[in-house]
Amino acid sequence: MPSWSIPYVLLVPGILVIAGLLLYPMIQMVTMSFQSISLRVIRGVAEPKWVGLENYTKLFDNDIFWSSLRNTIVFAAVTVALTLILGTAVGVLLNRLSRRMSTFVIIGIMSAWAVPPVAQGTIWRWLFDAEAGIINWALNLLPDGLSTLVLGRADWTAQPWLNDAWSVYIVLVLTVVWASFPFVAVSVLAGLRGIPAELYEAARVDGSTPWHTFRKITFPLLKPVFAVLTILSIIWDFKVLSQLYVLLNGPTNREAFNLSLFSFAEAFKAPPKMGSGAAIAVVLTIILLVVTAFYTRQMVKQEDLT
Amino acid sequence: MRIAKITATTVTTAALALGLAACGSGETTTPQPQASASASGPKFAGQSITVWRLGDPNEPSQKYMDDLVAEFKTQTGATANVQWIPWPQVNDKFTAAAAGGEGPDVTEIGNDQVPLWQSQDALAPVTSITTGGEHAQIPKNLFGLETIDGEVYAMPWGAGTRAVMYRKDWFEDLKIEPPKTWDELVAAAKKIQDEKGKDVDGFAFNGGSDANHLLGALAWSEGGEYAVKEGDKWVGKLTDPAFKTGFETYTGLVTSGVSGKSRLTLNTTDIRTRFSNGKVGMYLTASWDIATIKEESKGKVKEDQMAFFPLPSKSGGETPAFFGGNDITVWNDAKNKELATEFVKLATSKKWADRYALDGGLLPVYPDTLAELAKDPAQAPFAAAFAKAKAFPADPQWTEANETKAVLQNAARSVIEGKATADEALAKANKELEDILNQS
């Protein structure tokens, strides 16, 4: 075997797995998005019908698509930012704790991360329940004056958090940030542990403030970590489905759909419309690919420079 | 930069691995118990079929199925395995079964669901049953939704209409008479909330998968219609003043505070659970809920604390109720259609169909049994509603408008939240309803 071929041979098993499990379904999905696929097609008693761009034109005419797109993007932007800020802050904090204490805190926050998505949704749905929820109860405990001053109202009895799209998304942001910041925190901590202590000592000798140290030493050194975490968070937050499904009590409230839930409702609720469901999924995939490609380029560029 | 790079790689790898793990979920399948084969005995000895019953089992319905299955075994020698599917999951389960998943051989089905599932090739014709013997006594007008292109795709098993279930003991405590007009109903609901707490729904708003049972009754009572077929096209009638009046009565349940604003997506099953917990004074349902509530509330709500009255209309008199009915039929993928048809035939014979209806709180499909039942004062509200019963548009796409897209539920939500006027919301809903019903 010529030596140049070794990398390729080593790559083959991985490529085969990706091709079988990812590429083939992706091609299938794109094909389906140009077809009308009813249950009868899935049952094998009818042939899929080519409809050209009809699934897409119908989709772009649909108000629900545009509100879903808006919900998806705004949610991802807010959640990614909050997750990274909170995660980094906690990571830096963990680095200053003693070994035993930081292990303790890590176990604590990682258990939030380990909660399965449906359970996350259930937990927060109960917390924000209009009548039995602890949030409304706690807001009512605030002194009336303070509550009115800060939040604009004193009485929170039976406040229906999960009706209106925007308040559902407040709860969803909390749910997802709560469950995903620990991963960022621990990754940042791992990165921080790798930065030589001499740099910080030198900074201290030079009289640098903590903020300055973070900006001039920590952040540049951890930039690759942040780049990866940002991409991952974007991918994860664009795809949120289970938590939203649980918070909304199923796909009924269409104003609060995001693209994933919209795609799911189209493709799998009776009568299933796999074609338009696939079209939504294609749009979501393209958005994600563009965003990811952009960030990956940035990342590669930076590494070339350093 | 080495360390940072390694960290980055590690993070990526770990995340990908976790991502994959998260994706790898599988659907759980229930193993099919195989009946033990016996060499001798009746024709189908040793074979088995799966029967789907819809709803949550309660004591009488469970007992009924046990007896029916035993009778089936005696007659055919075959075993029937009964599985219960809660109503809100029915369409999802049918979808999965029709797409090639684990399905039934015989299934119960809502009569308004028959056109949809027939159009998806999921049901087998059972026309042969209807022509012979006592089955011919079932009135032909009960086969309206079931007859498609001359073939009957499901057998009527029991007819269900809806009436208002109320807490009889609360009414007696608070000295409220069962309401005869809509205004009285709202007044009664307010009084219940004043006395029993603000988190109690005086009259529960249904905004879930079966919301149109309530909205339909209110709209029909004003003379409104969802849509009518003109030629081969459906024309939406949601913007007609009559429908609008009914729609406003419906949203008024929440805007007047009679039902909590935080509960806009509850279906009858969710409301029943709240009723069992003493959080609902009145709601629209069928009489089968009595047995379930008795069990579910674990004695908190007893049988003598529940009663029914016909839903009064805004303009006076009783509302036309949704003409509901439960059918039973042969699933098209049944492995042994002959045996499955035998089960349907037995279940809809006079003896077993009558008992199905009477034990389950439905109206019997055999006319003489129905006439007998109408004399019973407890059943009178249902018989009264049955006389005026109306059905939703008979179209395979109705289920999509009704449950999947929840067109009118979303229209009601936007009005309740003050984002649109009833006119705006209904105009939008009307267009969508037409689009859905007229798609090929």
From TrEMBL, chain B:
Gene3D superfamilies: Periplasmic binding protein-like II. Pfam families: SBP_bac_1. Transmembrane segments: none annotated. The keyword Flavoprotein does not apply. GO terms for biological process: maltodextrin transmembrane transport; maltose transport. Keywords: Signal, Transport. One of its GO terms (cellular component) is ATP-binding cassette (ABC) transporter complex, substrate-binding subunit-containing. Residues 1-17 form the signal peptide. It comes from the Bacteria. GO terms for molecular function: maltose binding. Belongs to the bacterial solute-binding protein 1 family. PANTHER family: MALTOSE-BINDING PERIPLASMIC PROTEIN (PTHR30061), MALTOSE_MALTODEXTRIN-BINDING PERIPLASMIC PROTEIN (PTHR30061:SF50). This is Extracellular solute-binding protein. It comes from Nonomuraea turkmeniaca. The lineage of its organism: Bacteria, Bacillati, Actinomycetota, Actinomycetes, Streptosporangiales.
